[in-house]
Amino acid sequence: MSSRIGPPAPSEYFLAIGLGRLAILRYTNKEGRSKMAPVPIRSSAPGKVILFGEHAVVYGRPAIAVPVTQVRATATVKPASPGSGLTIVASDLGKSTSLATAPRDEPLAATARLTLAHISVPEPDATLTVSSTIPIASGLGSGAAVSTALVRALAGFLGCTLEPAEVSALVFEVEKIHHGTPSGIDNTVVAYEQPVYFVRGHPVERLTVGAPFTLLIGDTGIPSPTKKIVGRVRQGWQREPARYDALFDQMGDIADEARRMIETGNVGALGSLMDENHELLVELGVSSSKLDDLVETARFAGALGAKLSGAGRGGNMIALVEEDLTEEVEEALRETGAVEVIRTTITTTK
């Protein structure tokens, strides 16, 4: 349930301090007009990578995903002049739109409308600005991160603190616009900002990481249109359900084994599991020559294992590396054509 703070007396403002930051309280006066303290609210959310189980997770098999805090989406909400309504600004794209006139399927506007409906308040007079350092269409959960930051910032501006499960459920509805038939894993790992073991339709299980491990995330520079790729996999599954289900079963078994290795701190064993998962994704038809080149390069340079991450065909690959070989593997990936390499260490987030 959300934590909502009751309104002050009409025509009064006050600030409540909670969880180490200021929360702005919104209310309605006797004339039904909204009142807001003139202080902006800012929220952010991380990127993510799927370690194991992409595609199979759409069909009820388990998957493991982790947040990537080195890249983030940010949303800021500040008061605007009375009667102006809510204006949404996507600063990275140079776009600005009014909530009142935005199409129903415009993702940012849809996120704002879902949030307002969830907390049962009318459209405020405010400017909501979103920006992100997460590459778009790369498998790093850019859409989910932007939506999560937006939900939290807008709700906070209106005096409402939402639980991760509430945020995740709202963002999942927007993910349907982005991806058609999303699994729900992106919104889950981003909203909780913790490593998760995820099975569609089951309660979220947060993972305990027995020993920290380091990943390199190599960007092919090629867009990975998740909605299109997921749709093509579904078409294949409809044509050959037995073949595809067998592949998904194997991916699910790998994810279960990987969970045991992560929780017991047996990091070395994750490498071979990543290699196995990648070969299954190749058989599924979602890899590409660029992804395969980067995966092979990482292995040859000393990575313990490597695989594509996300929808595939482009986007990112991930490599499990030991600390003393991190720079060597990163350099090899760049020389092979990775347009960007992110280094992240996976631990249990308190």
CATH topology of the largest domain: Ribosomal Protein S5, domain 2
At CATH level 2, the architecture of the largest domain is: 2-Layer Sandwich
Strand-pairing-aware structural class: alpha+beta
Radius of gyration: 21 Å
Number of helices: 9
The amount of beta strand, in percent, is 25-35%
Write the layout of secondary structure elements.
Elements: E1 3-4, E2 15-18, E3 21-24, E4 27-28, E5 34-35, E6 41-52, E7 63-79, E8 86-90, E9 95-98, H1 107-119, E10 126-132, H2 142-157, E11 160-161, H3 164-179, H4 185-192, E12 196-198, E13 205-206, E14 213-219, H5 226-239, H6 241-264, H7 268-284, H8 289-300, E15 305-309, E16 316-321, H9 326-336, E17 340-346
Parallel strand pairs: 8-10
Antiparallel strand pairs: 1-11, 2-3, 4-5, 6-7, 7-10, 7-12, 8-9, 12-13, 14-16, 14-17, 15-16
Explained architecture:
- The chain contains nine helices and 17 strands.
- It is globular.
- The protein has helices spanning 107-119, 142-157, 164-179, 185-192, 226-239, 241-264, 268-284, 289-300, 326-336; strands spanning 3-4, 15-18, 21-24, 27-28, 34-35, 41-52, 63-79, 86-90, 95-98, 126-132, 160-161, 196-198, 205-206, 213-219, 305-309, 316-321, 340-346.
- Helices cover 37% and strands 26% of the residues.
Comma- or semicolon-separated keywords:
350 residues, alpha+beta, Ribosomal Protein S5, domain 2, 7-stranded mixed sheet, disordered N terminus
Q: What's a quick, concise take on this entry?
A:
With 350 residues, the protein is an alpha+beta fold. It is built from nine helices and 17 strands.
